[in-house]
Amino acid sequence: MGIQLKQNGLAGFLEPEDLAGMAPLVEACAGQLARGDGLGADALGWIELPRRYDKAEFERIQAAAKKIQADSEVLVVIGIGGSYLGARAALEFVHSPLYNSRAGKSTPDIYFVGNNLSSTYINEVIELIGERDFSVNVISKSGTTTEPAIAFRVFKKLLEQKYGKPGAARRIYATTDREKGALKSLADAEGYETFVVPDDIGGRYSVLTAVGLLPMAASGIDLGAVMRGADDARAACAESDFSKNQCRQYAALRHCLFNRGKVIEILVNYEPRLTQFGEWYKQLFAESEGKNKKGIFPTSANFSTDLHSIGQFIQDGSRNLFETVLWCPKAERPLVIEADEANIDGLNFLAGRSMQFVNSKAYAGTLLAHMDGGVPNIVLELDDIDAYHFGYTVYFFEMACALSGYLFGLNPFNQPGVESYKTNMFTLLHKPGYEQGAAQLEQRLSQ
Ligand SMILES: O=P(O)(O)OC[C@H]1O[C@](O)(CO)[C@@H](O)[C@@H]1O
Is the ipTM of this complex over 0.85? Predict the structure, then answer.
């Protein structure tokens, strides 16, 4: 159960001493995290979360999910960044990227909005909801982020038109700060049920709080299994013997590769259910590591799909890449390739083979080809792609990311760089308090 780290894709790129040499540094970082005396120490609530989560709130989340399932055909989840990526990843990881279209499903369709500024997208979601009953889960730790705030205005109004103000209030669930922020004030004033993003857990580390758990529960995901997976990962990631701690080894290996000029990590999967997990991973590592002109640039690829697009570059382009492959040998729903009498497509050599067998050869063949092309591969093997492994994998990456940030000497729990675009956008929008400098920005744009 859990994740197995495989290093055969590193042969020829790293020596055993490389890993051994990193061990004391990683151990020192792990010690700082455990003692809480490193950078960003006020944001370490995620470390013990799988065993110390608020059980009363957990019950309330499940009760709210039951109510949503009973009175809504659609749940609109409003949030951006860490306030939506984890829930979306969970939905696809545990159910399917085709979750909303599944025949005979008794849980609500789930649409994610407030994660862009496209009016076309919002209008399309409104059309998709149509006359159906719906509820809204608005999620924002700060309670002030522009994208979800605009989307919430739209969907709040729709709910109020359809159900009246008190009826709408019974269909709005707000996940936000315990005390402060515009969303908390609004929720208190209007009487929405609220859930908490704990003070000591940052947005991108919040998927195992109400932020991710309410949408997961509404979709029928077994929250107990998610938290069991996360707690098993917590125990495995705390293992003091470096040779048995796969999370610490992963953090060490990616840092060794960075030191060899491999400054881009591609998180690869061979299963469409993992595509959104790649999106969640990108925010986790990019906001945590990408600062002070340091860090490994995180990106993701979906194979074999992307072998037919960016595969060329990975094989043969600039040699500053490494891959971390999330591989699951099992297919939850197998499919056997049948013989065909005419065999015009020449595929009868595969007759009787499972599609997963072909997938496994694509994985093995690609691993070797990319190694031959100069791209080292770390493999993280999952036994299954289910609720338990979602919790496990989330925690494993959260810990690896925190360790990696400390290895770079960074605070992995802030994101000061995200403010620059916001400041410019607010200035250009003439938001009160941001008027200064508008003319200068407009002049630069007109050049
Ligand atoms: O939950 P909030 O406060 O709306 O923030 C959403 C996202 O925006 C960011 O703060 C970046 O602007 C992310 O770190 C965060 O996950």
Answer: yes
